[in-house]
Amino acid sequence: MNGFREIVEQLSAKQLRQAVYFTQLIITGCAGLLTIFYSYRGVEFSKFITFDWIELFYFSFIPAVIILTIDLLLYHYLPDKYLDDQGVNKKVFKDITLCELLLITAWIAIAEEWLFRLVIQSQFGIVVTMLTFIFLHTRYLKQPLLLINISCLSLGLSLIMELTGNILTVIVLHFLIDFGLGLYIRKA
After folding, report:
1. Which DSSP state fits 120?
2. Neighbours of 154 (CB within 10 A)
3. How large a percentage of the chain has pLDDT more than 90?
4. Of the chain's two ends, which shows fewer C-beta atoms within 10 Å, N or C?
5. In terms of C-beta distances under 8 Å and separation of at least 24 residues, what long-range contacts does 134-139 make, across chains too?
6. What is the largest CA-CA distance in the chain?
7. Residues 6 or more apart from 100 whose CB is under 8 A from it?
8. In 3D, which of 36, 170, 53 has the Cα closest to residue 109?
9. What residue spans define the domains of the chain?
């Protein structure tokens, strides 16, 4: 048995969720500090925030349905060993309340997209963004299918950000995917 899996097994679901919240707090803090830093250097992040229902439909809702359909088919037809993230997602989402699921997935989507797509991608481009996003999800690195999945997701989020120039589209997309998968795991 590997060390990370043993740690996950020793933690209660509550402790693991607290670790997720702590991680998101760090990501939010980094995003905030970098936003302030680059704002002082003349970057206008507000130009990346617009609300457009049509854009949300085409670039958030439709891709979320497609991605969730693919992910749910994978979960349904593939053996668990191909989609094993060392037990983290199951433990975090299995017995979570609907309210907490909404909160945790919204915070993850906002914090990660703020840092990766809004700050890092606007300053360093898609490749650096993808690599840092994948690195954040280190538990997927030893699972080829999960690595491909997170790489495609990162590329898709980055391309949608480039295409729309709107952080809200990628935040909503990320949220819908995480919330949908969280609902599935919660009921599985």
Report:
1. I
2. 21
3. 78
4. N
5. 136/27, 136/112, 139/4, 139/85, 139/86, 139/88
6. 50
7. 17
8. 170
9. 3-187
